Amino acid sequence: MSSVYRKKSGTYYLSVSYQGQRLTKSLGTKNYKTARSIKVDLEKELLTQIIHGANPECLIFKDLMLRYLEFDHGWKDSTYKLNKRLLNGYIKTGFPQNKTTRAMTVRVVNSCNRWGFKNTLIPNYNPIPGGNNYNVRDRVFTVSELKTLFDNVTPEHFNQFVQFAYYTGARSGEIRSISRDNVLEGSLVVRGKSGRRYVKLNSQAQAILLEQMPLWSYKKDYVTHKFKKEVRMLGIKNARFHDLRRTFGLNLIKQGMSIYKVSKLLGHKSVRTTEQHYAPLLTAEIEDFEL
Question: In the CATH scheme, what is the homologous superfamily, with its name and number, of domain 143-283?
Answer without folding.
Answer: Intergrase catalytic core (1.10.443.10)
